[in-house]
Design goal:
By secondary structure, this protein is α/β, with parallel strands linked by helices. Helices cover 35% and strands 16% of the residues. It is built from 9 helices and 13 strands. Strands 3-2-1-4-5-6-11 form a 7-stranded parallel sheet, with helices on both faces. Strand 1, helix 1 and strand 2 form a beta-alpha-beta unit. Helix 1 crosses helix 6, helix 3 packs parallel to helix 4 and helix 5 packs parallel to helix 7. The mean pLDDT is 93.
Length: 326
């Protein structure tokens, strides 16, 4: 039996998707990257285009597509508030119709399929840190619901296809991830702070900065995602992937100023609606089932990310969407 697999990565030109494609190509698999470039950049995968085992397809996963594959990584969905709130109906459709289309393909091809879910399924959590057994506190009619509830519904579809049709599924819940190839205008806190610091702008902190996040470097996250797909056990998940080390937003802002040598001031703005106050994964299950935990310290990961931000031309990226920085 051939060890080379035909692998589809939806959202493969995005921040995480492009790094996942890179790793899978390096492993020798035949990789199909599918993306509609709504929030991603073709430049993220340009260096892979001349590889004989890489193929790029421009397609919207809300529409059916017929491919013959062995594995599917479903990463297609705007993942940053500035992007997913720009067109909330489209965001919901991407989660729902995207899940239906990849699950239908997986059923037909008897392929293994992984859903990139999110820590947002926990909402503004009442349990801390968040284990996979926690069912969340999500506002279904709030401005973030298109993403939160879309991902929750996608998990439902994955589990029902598994129970009803025996589709071989995997679900990972991804916590805050950062690193090179983040979109500089995605509205995420790490990209916001680094871009503002390098441009000498005020660094915008929402609320009083005491809210917490846990930041996982992209290489660690991609390793966890691949381990979950390759896990030989009958373990569908969901499983949390993230860094259990917790930092306040104010601590992050000060660290970015220090590492960039910026003269930027920190300014405070009102906290957006339904913004989680605390966010930290319980990764006990990932350690037990996958032998996985993040290795990259925040300072080291930020230095690599800052170095990449210094190397890019911001004019090559689309300007902020109307909902940017929400």
């Amino acid at each position: 039996m051939s060890l080379v697999k035909r692998i589809l990565v939806t959202g493969g030109a995005g921040f995480l998707g492009s790094h996942l494609c890179e790793r899978l190509v390096e492993m020798g698999h035949d990789v199909i990257c599918l993306d509609n470039f709504f929030t991603s950049q073709k430049s993220n995968v340009a260096h892979l285009l001349n590889k004989p085992n890489f193929e790029l397809i421009r397609h919207d996963i809300t529409l059916p597509i017929w491919l013959e594959v062995d594995e599917i990584y479903n990463l297609a969905c705007p993942a940053a508030p500035g992007h997913y709130q720009y067109n909330p109906i489209k965001t919901m459709k991407t989660s729902l119709m995207g899940a239906i289309n990849v699950l239908g393909m997986a059923k037909r091809c008897r392929a293994k399929v992984l859903q990139a879910s999110t820590s947002e399924v926990y909402g503004d959590p009442e349990v801390h840190p968040q284990p996979e057994t926690y069912r969340g506190a999500v506002n279904p009619i709030g401005p973030r619901a298109c993403y939160d509830e879309g991902k929750r519904a996608a998990e439902t579809l994955f589990m029902d296809y598994h129970r009803m049709n025996r589709v071989n599924i995997r679900i990972v819940r991804i916590f805050n991830t950062y690193g090179p190839r983040m979109h500089p205008y995605d509205g995420r806190v790490v990209s916001n702070f680094i871009r503002q610091a390098l441009c000498g702008e005020d660094i915008t902190v929402y609320g009083d900065g005491s809210q917490t996040r846990s930041f996982c470097y992209r290489d660690d996250m991609v390793e966890g995602i691949i381990r979950m797909m390759e896990n030989p056990e009958d373990f569908t998940g969901p499983v949390n992937l993230g860094n259990p080390e917790e930092f306040t937003i104010l601590e992050l802002a000060k660290l970015v100023i220090e590492l960039t040598g910026s003269k930027s001031r920190i300014v405070f703005r009102p906290l957006p609606a339904d913004d989680p106050v605390r966010r930290r994964p319980d990764i006990t299950l990932a350690k037990q089932k996958l032998g996985w935990e993040p290795k990259t310290p925040l300072r080291e990961g930020l230095m690599r990310t800052i170095e990449w931000f210094r190397s890019i031309d911001l004019s090559h990226y689309r300007p902020p969407t109307p909902c940017y920085e929400q």
